[in-house]
């Protein structure tokens, strides 16, 4: 949870405070709506980051913190699928897209593991 919260917070802060630079780098048409959507995207990343940060010390898996686990799994899972699709169809911006794809796949697998694993099972393995 700590790694995902830091990753999401860094993404959110970068996107929120550097929207014009991001738009220029990606060669996107800059207008008020584009900047607004980029800033809202940054706010979403920061919100997910703070959610994960505040929940980092709690028990996860099984029924524990299922909404947080599902939200993260959905975000990273769907994001990973979209990034893999873009990576396989385009060579543009590969210096950003490929590392981002790898990070998203790792987090998606991590949250899938948390979703499928019961904390009681893990505690039982440690006590044996």
Summarize this structure briefly.
The chain crosses the membrane at residues 32-55, 96-115. This protein is an all-alpha fold and 128 residues long. The protein has helices at 2-17, 19-25, 32-55, 66-89, 94-116, 119-127.
Set down the secondary structure blueprint.
Elements: H1 2-17, H2 19-25, H3 32-55, H4 66-89, H5 94-116, H6 119-127
Helix pairs in contact: 1-3, 4-5
Characterize the structure shown.
The structure is a single chain. The protein is an all-alpha fold. It folds into 2 domains: 1-56; 58-120. Helix content is 80%, strand content 0%. It is built from 6 helices and no strands. It has helices spanning 2-17, 19-25, 32-55, 66-89, 94-116, 119-127. Helix 1 (2-17) packs antiparallel against helix 3 (32-55) and helix 4 (66-89) runs antiparallel to helix 5 (94-116). The longest helix is centred in the middle third of the chain and has 24 residues, at 32-55. It is globular and about 50 Å long. 17% of the residues are buried. Keywords: Membrane, Transmembrane, Transmembrane helix. The chain crosses the membrane at residues 32-55, 96-115.
Largest sheet: none
Cα gyration radius (Å): 17 Å
State the share of residues found in helices, binned by percent: over 70%
Write down the overall geometry. Answer: globular
Q: Low-confidence runs (pLDDT<50, min 5 residues)?
A: none
Terminal-residue CA separation: 26 Å
What is the typical, i.e. mean, pLDDT? Answer: 89
Which structural class fits the helix and strand makeup?
mainly alpha
- The tally of strands reads 0
Supply the number of helical segments.
6
The helix/strand series, from N terminus to C terminus, equals: HHHHHH
Strand content: under 5%
The total number of structural domains is: 2
